[in-house]
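Box S2. Input/output pair 1.
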Amino acid sequence: MNDYVRGSAWRVPVTACQPRPLSAFLSRNAQRRPASAIRSLLPLEQEPGMISLLAGKPNPATFPIEEIAVKVRLPDDASSPVVVAVTGDRLQKALQYGPTAGTPALVDWLAQLTSSLHGRPLPAQSSDSTKPWQLAVGNGSQDLIVKAFEVILDSGDTALLQSPTYPGVLPALCVGQVNTVAVESDEAGIRADALERMLARWDVDEKTSSLARPKLLYMVPTASNPTGTSTSLDRKRALLRLARKYDFLLFEDDPYYHLSFEEATPSLFALDGQDSDHDQGRVLRFESLSKVMSAGLRIGFVAGPSVLVDAINKYTATSHLQVSGVSQCVAIAVLEQMGHRGFLQHAARTADFYRRRRDAFERIAHEILRAEPPVAEWTSPGGGMFLWLRLLLPLNANTAEGDSFALISTQARRAGVLAVPGVAFLASSGGTSTYVRVSFSLIGEEDTAEAFRRLRRVILDL
């Protein structure tokens, strides 16, 4: 068995084959965090015959809300919305303090969907410690990702990040003083071959030899933000193999899973459960209802090994306690009305909606940005909401390709067009990028054309 040391840095041998217990991945903060004195006892209130003098719950008789009703467009007949009302006992529970991991009806509905889509048998109805995986609801998936970072990573630990990466995760890693190392990606997603070379040379390469070996790889496998590219099945298998060989976790952030314009490939979470010859605890999978149902509901969920999800729930219980019960009750009322089949129909139609917007957006981009002389190039996204434009900028002394930051932050803004410069998506600070991310989710065709004309003029005026 390989030796390992818990300390200020995560140290493992170059060829680590013996998997360590998942509890060894927990950060010092996670190991020190005590259980909530009150919330840890709340499940006992459900025992038959129990009389609870426990929690300081407000009396629902004082709540002025009598009903919550929403109109819902169902996929079978979107022209005739139906009213879904939340009343009675379900409403009282929604207005009251609720379970940390989420409303049981919503957790069960999402767990059944996850089991069906990813081929993972539902967790046994037993104590959490014996379940192969479990699911918890969060205040959006980013809430869960940030908490997962906190319960896994200590100051001085190392996290691998798909590059370019989603910038929303970077502040938490910066504040936590975590070392971040970029892993290349291309049109087929994250490059497993580049990662394998990096890991094999970790202790001798001057770029990594002073760093602790990585505890996790964070990636967006489907329609990655910002590139819109997806990681291929072969690469997913290779990444899982590397995670087992070098003993790190895979954070599978998949908010665009239902917004893919291409044929879906099995998720890392699915692949992790297929091979009975290996441990099935490498993947934490994060999903969200924001892109297909409502961003304002703030409903995300995580599925993964129980010991890791328990640590996230423990963090929630001692911070903001739970996700809004009202948001959860609205979400489950709508989802139950749709059913799993109806939800997937709605998701497919949503993906088609964005595919048509992409097509129109790209057509206008070709007409304006690729006109002679061309000022940008890109790979057509296979899903999501973005184009990742490589601007054809004049060269300067500081970079071989030019840098979009000043142009987008200053000249383009003065010209009346906003976009996100590529440096925002770099895994580490101090670099430059000739790229820019532009979104087609909301903008109309007339405004798209005018925005691209303004951007073109700014580039040509350099």
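Box S3. Input/output pair 2.
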Amino acid sequence: MGGLSKKAFQIKRIGDREKLPFIFLDGGALLFKQNTFHSNAHQQQADIMTATGIARAMELMDCKAVGIAPQDLAGGVDRLKEIQDQQKLNWVSVNLVEPTNKKPVFTPLIRTKAGSTRIAILGLTDDQGHPGVTREKYTIVSWKDSLPGYVKQAQEGADMIILLSSYPEPVNREIAQTIDGIHLILQSGRAASNMAPLKIRNTLLTRVAARGKYLGMMRIHWTKTGFWGQDLTKKIRKEQNKLDRINWQIGRIEKKKPASELKNNSLYTTLLTDRKHTINAIQALQKKKDAGASDPCSFTSQFIGLKSSMPDDTEVQGVIDQTTRKVNAFNKKRKRATTALPHTSLDKLAGTQKCEECHPVQVAFWKQTSHSSAWKTLEQGNQQFNDECLVCHVTLPYYDLDRAREEQLLVQLPKEFRDVGCESCHGPAAAHIKAPESNHPLLPQEKVCLQCHTDEHDDNFVYTEKRGKIACPKG
């Protein structure tokens, strides 16, 4: 959730700076990380609290519409309807329908304006290769059966049509190739990388990377042609800049050379020819621009990385903090009430105190690193009951959050496994302690670190640099 407050700050900053009409949209995959709900009822409750907080933050950010991805349906259609009603968010999908009458469960089409441009927004939910399969209270039908009719409906009274799609890129390419009238497809962030706008016929397809680490922004110059092309004003300016450079070079040569030598100067004659061509190009472009009707629609785009050092929007950050405290209090109450015993997976661990018996020099060094105070940082932020944070601030036999939750490793974790201990990097050591000669600890590889030092949680992590700071001394 942390990136939302930074995203909100950037949106406000850009709006204040550019003084242009804008709309904020999200392609979907917003509420839950997985397509299916966690089997544990308590974890379901905690996830719903988080999802509600996310939706509230998006409402504060004045999000005009959100596409519905399979991840958003993890809690079921009724849950998503509740969140929509509570937070007044517009969830859109043309192909998420009721099983019996095939009517859309949510709004299929939203109309809005950006300045004088009339915009229609459609949503499309990925059927994951199984169109028409009836799930609990809904069916996701094929885009081929549902989308064309709504595009035709959207064209009435709209200058521009935007599609929020959670389908993968190959399907979105096919949509752009086969359906006329869609001007922009915003693909929900299922991929790890951003994708700059790609023009397919008269449709732009773009994507912002998953996990909310970037804010995608497009500046669109919309004209009555409704066709994407190059901004003539910018192209004229570019040619004018070129002409200025040519004139500057010609002027320098004319100052240095006598007039009698200029005729035989090859660079000078080339520049004169270039100047003539550039002037002709400017005049031709200006003529097109003056005609008006031939001026195509144009755009620029950028992806803004949401670094941890960026400022936060205070109102949205307040929602995030409140949600986090609520989830943490719920988890605290649940864990104190549980009678579950630690899972046998923990038997593979020995604990840093046992390591110290044979490796006092290394453990003494470890105590000076931030790994040794990982639990303390959680307590200072009152996050020691937040599974999302907890999993990477303790010593576990593995760092798969879903599996750790399933085996309830985080519910009754013994105190000796608090902090990021030796076995977080070198692997479980109980077998090594029993038979040191035949069971050797692992040498840490980059992939071990990247289980927790992800872009989402540590955008300054460089393995070669960090390894030098925490590598155990010899001896």
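Caption for Box S3: The mean pLDDT is 90. The domain at 2-230+298-305 is CATH 3.60.21.10 (Purple Acid Phosphatase; chain A, domain 2).
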